[in-house]
Amino acid sequence: MDNLYNDKKAAKCESDLDLRVYTSNLLGQNDELVLHGGGNTSVKTDVDGEEILYVKGSGWDLVSIEAKGFTPVKRDVLLEMAKLDTLSDVEMVRQQRLASIDKYAPNPSVEAILHALIPYKFVDHTHADAIVTISNSVDGDEHIVKLFPNFLIVDYIMPGFELAHKIYEMTKTLDWDSIDGIILHNHGIFTFDNDAKTSYTKMIDAVTKAEDFLDVNAIVDIQHKYVHSDCDIARVVNTMSEYKGHEVHIGINQTPLAAFYASQENLREFASRGVLTPEHIIRTKRVPLIMEDTDLIGGLDRYVAAYKEYFDKYAKDEVMLNPAPNYMIIKNLAVVSFGRTREEAKIIYDIVEHTMLAVLRADKLGGYQSISEADSFAMEYWELEQAKLKK
């Protein structure tokens, strides 16, 4: 992975926040690090004698974030929040807003408390494909420990307060200088330093190490011949629009990767093993519609029935989202994403594109495995994630 840091451009930055914007944009330029709103960054700085955490605001993309996209929050308040045994999502958001010194700033990232806990000026967090590919493999724990012996390794836990409190408990007696970063299984990676360039470089170096490991141990030979199909796309669009209750836009992926992925044996089981990283589920749902024949209505009805069963199994007081699929895989042919807009269909297209390669590579490491069905439901119906879609 290329290190894009440019000393001359960085030298033009006049403040800590300017540097934070610059290196955040560098991270965002690489879709193998973050996709469509993924990841978050922060910088700690002094404002009138008080330590303030400027953390990525909810709804911003790292590739395009500006200074106004960072929310300034009093770090001492966030540190006290980390010590609490429990904290509801609503209360966390409320307290973080009250701790902000700018009432016009966006809501802070759901990981703001965790950023505050890390005692370094610059903190970078991504959902790097290479890292989550390895951690989402059957032997991911073993591989990650061997590759990153100086990282704090954390088993999957719900993002937000639960994750921050877990790390608070894990690091009470930790010498932070003894670790180079944090890896969250099935989720992503944190790097940090008091220097912006060093924190960014640590991220690039760690991800490069993971990529090198995959290049040796998870080689995927994509071979697939074009298959002619008389698939009626207009029928697909019209039918999906009926099931969604609104006009549907589509993205059709017939790249060699997509066609190869769609040609796998036992396709239904193969392609229904969950998301690459938890935040993807609000875009893609946990599994796609698998079409191995031409009975689109029958396939949709079975998918909807299965989704309702999944919802009933885990729901407490949630209101069910539309149960129709957000993408489908047509056997031996293509992957098709569905969105309310062309942009939304493209977002789902991109996420699935990255997921397909990760699944194929993780299988070379012994097998792909995502977070549990119960954890998937918790993320899909987490009100803080749903708020992202509303924005």
Q: TL;DR of this structure?
A:
With 391 residues, the protein is of the alpha+beta class. It contains 17 helices and eleven strands.
Sum up the overall morphology in one term.
globular
What is the third-level CATH name, the topology of the largest domain? L-fuculose-1-phosphate Aldolase
**Gross CATH architecture of the largest domain:** 3-Layer(aba) Sandwich
Category from helices, strands and their pairing: alpha+beta
Q: Describe the strand arrangement of the main beta sheet, using strand numbers.
A: 3-2-1-4-7-6-5
Instruction: Please indicate the percent range of residues in DSSP E strands (runs of 2 or more).
Output: 5-15%
Radius of gyration over C-alpha positions, nearest whole angstrom: 21 Å
Secondary-structure element string:
HHEEEHHHEHHEHEEHHEHHHEHEEHHH
Got a strand count? 11
Please indicate the count of domains.
Answer: 2
Integer average pLDDT? 95
- Please write the CATH class name of the largest domain: Alpha Beta
* Number of H- or I-type helical stretches: 17
Estimate the helix proportion, in percent. Answer: 40-55%
Through-space gap between termini = 32 Å
Low-confidence stretches: none
Indicate the topology.
Layout: H1 7-11, H2 16-28, E1 40-47, E2 50-56, E3 70-74, H3 75-82, H4 89-99, H5 112-117, E4 122-126, H6 129-135, H7 140-147, E5 151-154, H8 161-170, E6 181-184, E7 188-193, H9 196-217, H10 233-244, E8 249-253, H11 256-262, H12 267-270, H13 281-284, E9 289-291, H14 296-314, E10 327-330, E11 334-339, H15 342-364, H16 373-380, H17 383-390
Parallel strand pairs: 5-6, 9-10
Antiparallel strand pairs: 1-2, 1-4, 2-3, 4-7, 6-7, 8-11, 10-11
Helix pairs in contact: 3-4, 6-7, 6-9, 6-15
